[in-house]
Amino acid sequence: MPISKEEVRRKYGISDDDFDIIEALALRPVCENCGKALPPDSQEARICSFECTFCQTCVEQVLDNVCPNCGGGFAPRPIRPARNWKNGNCLENFPARVTAKHKPVDPAAHARFCSELRKLPPEKR
User: What mean pLDDT comes out for the span 40-66?
Assistant: First the structure.
């Protein structure tokens, strides 16, 4: 199984430009922890670099800005334009994911996991 972008590109003969389209953010529809709806235009959606998706409340009050899946930090999820302003880069052509990924965090396990990580800023983890 290919593990890097370059290996995937070679195996399937995909150009960098085409790969960028395939890699468009999934815009996951709900917070993985509490299940709160996070539509594509939500200003409360937060993602880590692996696109784990949580609501702002869970990131701040439950997760201490530590992703329970990778240990990274979170940033606001960008909002994909609803209308086609240029080159078809919009929700119509690149719709948000509809399948929810809901796996609530065990607070005690997360507290143990992030006890040291939360002391470090995300760029130092």
Answer: 97
